[in-house]
Amino acid sequence: MSSLRVFDTYEHADKKSVVSFESSIKSSYNIKENIESLDVSFEWLELMEDTVRYLDNILRNPNRFIINEEEIVKVEQARRITVESIKHLAKHTSFIQEIEANGDVKPSKILNINKDESYDTYENRVIYTLIQNMRTFIDFKKSKLVTKSFSKNHRQSMYCGQAKMGTENVSINVTMDASANVSKEWKGKNNSGLTIPERIEKLEMRITDLTNTTVYKTLMRAHVSRVIPPIKKTNLILKNTNFQYAMKLWDFLQNNLEDGSTKNKTNKEYKDDIEAKGKFDELFLLNYLVMDSLTSNKIEQLELTRDQVENLTNGMINKIVEINSELPVEEITQKIGDKIAIIKNKKEASIEEVQTKLNSKIQSAISKIINFKLRGQND
Q: How much is the pTM?
């Protein structure tokens, strides 16, 4: 912007009036600023997407142990005679029915050992608990899902001023608002092209696959208890790569139970800042000068119109005299007086000025008529 025309108005203003106006200003000025922002994070989603495959490795190759179920049964019901069975019979001779002549021992009852595999290990229950925690966390996130970060900034300034210019009392009230609202879709490192809701849906499907594994179903049917932190650092948990990734996700979920998004809200108010108020005082002055210049221009335009009316009136009277030279002066005066009465009714405020000018023109017209008649008599 090369120059502001409003400064021309200031340059042509009466300097004494400007000083008088500025010295009489009484004003107040304040700014209110409201800032609100939300920074969403989907670190949890990325971490879960990375960890699911390691959980799958654990459940496809689970940790297990052998359970020996011992029971005393009749010999004919025993499925298998083991070394442990012979040792047990040697200690419990009451179970020997008879010893045959060839030395064979014939027991009536014997120890039967049933060996069975069990998935109910501490490590497996940790993974079982982790999968349930993942599903709970996802449900919580979906219930209040926001995929965009945003920043809002609203500012409002209010200026009130009073001043005196001559006999005029001048006042001004100015309110200005400025708002900015910016939103940004969260972009993580995932390059699949899927939206956040689509990625969550895909993750849930992968977790469902985990819950359909034999290990998870077995533990669920057994109603095993969930693991309560802190986690025991067993050799398997400490040294196995799959469990190391699983524990990283476990720790994250334990430490980020809240929403995880960062919210900020700030309200500020600045009152009567000297520098800012001084600038608005100057704008107050400029506003008045512009208004005053517009009013003055209208008055000048009004005066110009009156000059035009005067010229038209003068021309009209000359025409009357030239065309009706025999018309008596009294009749001319009467006609003009009638016109004056009409003008008076239309614009009472300017009647005196109009009468003065018209009387002057009437006298001039009368003189012309007399001179015209005198010339005719002489001829």
A: 0.53
Question: Which pair of tokens denotes residue 346?
Answer: 């239309």
Note the pLDDT tens digit of each residue in 205-219: 999 999 999 999 999
Q: How far apart are CA 184 and CA 149, in angstroms?
A: 5
115-164 per-position pLDDT tens digit: 667 889 999 999 999 999 999 999 988 888 887 788 899 999 999 999 99
What's the 3-state SS for the chain? Answer: CCCCCHHHHHHCCCHHHHHHHHHHCEEEEEEEEEEEEEECCCHHHHHHHHHHHHHHHHHHCCCCEEEEEEEEEEHHHCCCCCHHHHHHHHHCHHHEEEECCCCCEEECEEEEEEEEEECCCHHHHHHHHHHHHHHHHHHHHHHCCCCEEEEEEEEEEEEEEEEEECCEEEEEEEEEEEEEEEEEECCCCCCCCCCHHHHHHHHHHHHHHHHCCHHHHHHHHCCCCCCCCCCCCCHHHHHCHHHHHHHHHHHHHHHCCCCCCEEEEEEEEEECCHHHHHHHHHHHHHHHHHHHHHHHHHHHHHHHHHHHHHHHHHHHHHHHHHHCCCCCHHHHHHHHHHHHHHHHHHCHHHHHHHHHHHHHHHHHHHHHHHHHHHHHHHC
Determine what percent of the chain is predicted with pLDDT higher than 90. 34
Distance of CA 215 to the CA centre of its chain: 47
